[in-house]
Each structure stands twice: as C-alpha cells, then as structure tokens.
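Dear Dr. H.,

I hope your travels went smoothly. While you were away I took the liberty of generating a structure for the chain from your last submission, since the lab meeting agenda had it listed for discussion. I wanted you to have the full record in hand beforehand rather than looking at slides cold. The sequence, exactly as received, is reproduced here:
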Amino acid sequence: MLPLLIQTDLSITAFIFNTIPRNPLFDSFFSFLSLQGISVIFWILLMGYLILKEEKKEKKFILYFLLIIGFSYLFSDFFLKNIFHRTRPLFDTTIAHLYYCPRDYSFPSTHALLAFTACGILDYVDKKRMWIYYLVASLIAFSRIYLGCHYVLDVIAGASIGLFISYISIYLLLSPLHSPRRRPRSK
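The corresponding predicted structure, in token form, is as follows:
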C-alpha cells in the first residue's frame, strides 16, 4: 500500500511540475512566496495590522501566536522531518531550485505547516478576511511544489498538520482569551 501511495504522489507531483508553464513572472512570484522568512514576516505583519485595525489590546494573543508559530516550526523541522527522512524531489537542479530548497528532509512541508497554522489562527480571530488567509496559505504551499522542493503529499500533510495545530491551539490557548467572563448570578 505504501509504495503505491509514494508512486502516486511522485506521479502527481511530476505531472504538476512538468505541466505548469515556467516563466520569469511565475518563478519570481512563487520564489517570493517560498522564502521562509518572508512568509513568517507576512503572517506577523498581517496579525499586527489586524490588532491595530480592530483596536484589540490583547497582548497575550500576540505572544500565543508567536509561540504557536515557533512550536510549529520546531515540531516540523526538528521532529517530524527527522522521523520520516523523505528526500526532496529532484525534478530541477538549477540555481533557483537549489537556492529555495533547503537540503534537509522533505516530509512534511514546513512552509505549508506554518502557513496553515497561521491561517487557522487568524481565521479564528478575524472571520471577515478568512478567504485571504486561505488563499495566501494555499499559494505558499503550492509554491513549494512549483519550485520542486516538495511532493504533493508533503504539502498536504504540512497543511493538515498546520490546521490541526491551529485548532488545538485555539481550543487550549486562544478560546479562553475570547470567552466571556462568567458573572455571578444575581439574587
């Protein structure tokens, strides 16, 4: 069963990689989205904007958000990748590919995991712009396939784990911040 899944994943990834047209515009766009620091900075700036725009003074939320993103990064890069040891795809060996694809293991995609963790948390806090969060997270995740840094299954797993982490974090950390305080009953 597992070899069939791996072979299917390889075939789908190769199909996507070889079908999407390569051009300087797409290369620049997806390379920009794929820079690890840029994507994390994007989510932090977006969160800061929301807090200022909505005039929320919840400093605990900022701390929790940063801790959750930090935990997600460590969990993916230092724990999960070292369990699965999946090598990265070798569809492209150009300078751009080598520059944007780290030399560590492939499964799961940390970019997708972080993007969907941030997306899930920001969706909880700000429902009005949820389509923007999911669009950006999906583009970041897809950029990893476009650049040849990950297989489709790496990205799907990263996105799924990221959403799971965001839901657990919301339940354990964030929902108590937003729940109304209980008032004593009046007699």
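Two observations you may find useful: Residues 114 and 162 are 6 Å apart (CA to CA). The radius of gyration is 19 Å.

With kind regards,
E. W.
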